[in-house]
Structures are given as structure tokens and as C-alpha cells.
Design brief:
Helices cover 46% and strands 17% of the residues. With 317 residues, the protein is α/β, with parallel strands linked by helices. Strands 1, 2, 3, 4, 5, 6, 7, 8 and 9 form a 9-stranded mixed beta sheet that branches. Strand 2, helix 2 and strand 3 form a beta-alpha-beta unit. The longest helix is centred in the C-terminal third of the chain and has 21 residues.
């Protein structure tokens, strides 16, 4: 294990349009001690040829895995995490279509090393940062995604259960969190979590340290092929039949994610009894009456960042 090496995990799928810019921004970081580990999810648009070319040119820094089936984003990222957890002391996640600030790794590592000095290397830690929201040409649409989405108002564990404020392409986690996150294996974990970044944020908040660096270090590209994005949602879309159905499915997945996190309660509940009670209440909401759900949300502070979001939550749960 290289003590100060950062393993950057990139999950790709049909990303040929933008992936060269992302690869260049990662490979030319001011922080020299990096390894780029790429899992390609059955791309058929020329992405694999681009990745093979970069691996040939940067063979000392790039490890490439070509998947023979479509895993999906959660299993791809968690599979990459499993691949490196035994050797990696520090890990970042990378999307295929963004561009990183040249000091992203350096500034994140400086902060995380301070956290480890304070809390110890055996403490699970996740650090995340802000982003610049950009259009497909990387023109800035919002100088701060955190401010635009009101993420600073998500201050409690209950708030984080209701709404994710951690974007995967900004995170840096230590080896202690990586090993803990995969205690139940890749496939089972991927099946039970909503998304890898949300799960890791909740796990860090519950079992260790979740910290934030208030600086945008990623140009977060928004385009028609984003799996998830930062687009604003209008009222018509929010109350449409299709959106309501998706919302109900999302809450089902959120309850399942909370139930999965309860598996860690036996080990960590003693130190965080309030968080455990909140987690258990949320995990058990499925099947309860709407009034009981609202009562639990009020009791444990399970609110979204914006009041209108919390109101819609009460109507959809």
C-alpha cells in the first residue's frame, strides 16, 4: 500500500463524447501520487478504444477493467471499490463527463489528512466538496451547486436520510470507510442502496466523520445523457403522474437503504443512539399510515432542505 497514493475510480459507459477531457483533467492533477482505475460497463461507442489508448500512454497510472456485462452505475462503482480496498488508503470517485480542477486531489488530501490526524486513520471518513454546474460546453450555469440546491441547510442525520447532499464526483474517502462499506459484498450492497454516494455519506455520518470543503473543485457537466443531474424541477413536473410514481419508488428505495444501514447498528448504536433511533424509524416507515410517517419525520427531523421539498415529501411518502 502506497501511504499517500489516491486511487481514482472511474465508471464509464458510452462516454466517448466527453471522456478525453475528464481523463486529461485527472491525469494532470497537481497531486502526483494517483492511480486511475477504470471499469467500463460494456461501452459500444468507441469509449473502450479511447480508454485502451490512454492506458497504453499512461500505463504506470491507469488500470483498466472491461466488463463483459452491463453492471449499472452502483455495482460498477462498488465493484471498483472492492477491487482496490485492500491496497488503497485513499479513494475518489470520478464520472466520465466532468472536468476536475487541477488542485482537486491536492486540496482534498490536505483536508482529509488533517481529519485523520485529529480522529485517527481507523475512523471512517468521507470528505466532499462543492461543484460548478456547467452546460455541455462547460459554461458555468451555477457557481455553487451547494448554494443552488440549499445543501448547507442539510445539517442533521435525519436531513441526510431525506435528501442526499453529497455528489459522488466530489468525494474523497479513506480506507477505513471503504472496507466498512463493503462488509456485505458488492452485489448485496448494490442491491440495497439508493446510490453509492448517498450510501457512503450516510455510513460516514453514522459510523465516523462526514466533512465538507466549501470550494467548487469540479466542473459538473449537464447534458442529455446524465444519469443524475442538477436540473431544477418545475411544479408541473413535480406533480405529474409519472413523477409521483417515481417519487414513491424512490421512497421505497430510501427505506430499503436505511434498513441496510441498520446492519451496522449493533457495532455503532452505542455511540450514536439518536442517529440509530432516527435510522430505525425511517427504515420502518414502509407500510405505515401517512400520519404516522409525518409524526416520525417531525420527531426525528427527517426534512428536506427546502420547505416546499418537505411538504412534497409528506404528500408522497
Amino acid at each position: 500500500m502506497e501511504e499517500h497514493c489516491v486511487y481514482i475510480l472511474l465508471a464509464s459507459h458510452n462516454g466517448s463524447r466527453y471522456i478525453k477531457e475528464q481523463l486529461d483533467s485527472v491525469l494532470h492533477q497537481s497531486y502526483e501520487h494517483i492511480r486511475l482505475v477504470i471499469g467500463d460497463d460494456l461501452s459500444r461507442d468507441g469509449t473502450r478504444e479511447i480508454l485502451a489508448d490512454y492506458q497504453k500512454r499512461y500505463s504506470a497510472k491507469i488500470r483498466l477493467s472491461l466488463r463483459n456485462r452491463a453492471f449499472g452505475v452502483k455495482e460498477n462503482f462498488m465493484g471498483l471499490l472492492e477491487e482496490v480496498k485492500a491496497e488503497a488508503a485513499y479513494i475518489m470517485f470520478c464520472d466520465q463527463d466532468d472536468v476536475w480542477h487541477k488542485d482537486k486531489v491536492k486540496k482534498s488530501m490536505e483536508r482529509l489528512e488533517l481529519l485523520e490526524a485529529e480522529h485517527g486513520k481507523n475512523t471512517p471518513i468521507l470528505l466532499h466538496t462543492d461543484l460548478l454546474v456547467c452546460d455541455r460546453h462547460l459554461r458555468v450555469l451555477q457557481p455553487s451547486m451547494a448554494k443552488a440546491q440549499h445543501f448547507a441547510e442539510i445539517k442533521t442525520f435525519g436531513g441526510l436520510l431525506a435528501e442526499n447532499k453529497v455528489t459522488g464526483n466530489t468525494v474523497l474517502l479513506n480506507g477505513a470507510l471503504a472496507k466498512l462499506a463493503l462488509r456485505y459484498g458488492v452485489k448485496e450492497t448494490a442491491e440495497h442502496i439508493f446510490m453509492h454516494d448517498w450510501y457512503l455519506a450516510l455510513l460516514a455520518s453514522y459510523c465516523g466523520i462526514l466533512d465538507y470543503l466549501d470550494e467548487p473543485l469540479v466542473r459538473y457537466r449537464q447534458h442529455e445523457s446524465n444519469v443524475l443531474g442538477a436540473q431544477r424541477k418545475g411544479w408541473r413536473r413535480m406533480i405529474g403522474t409519472g413523477h409521483l410514481q417515481r417519487a414513491k419508488e424512490n421512497y421505497r428505495l430510501m427505506y430499503r437503504q436505511a434498513a441496510f444501514l441498520l446492519r451496522f447498528a449493533e457495532e455503532f448504536a452505542e455511540g450514536e443512539p439518536d442517529k440509530t433511533a432516527c435510522l430505525r424509524a425511517f427504515a420502518q416507515m414502509s407500510g405505515k399510515s401517512r400520519w404516522k410517517k409525518i409524526q416520525n419525520c417531525i420527531r426525528f427531523g427527517i426534512y428536506k432542505a427546502k420547505p416546499v421539498g418537505s411538504l412534497m415529501q409528506m404528500l408522497r411518502m
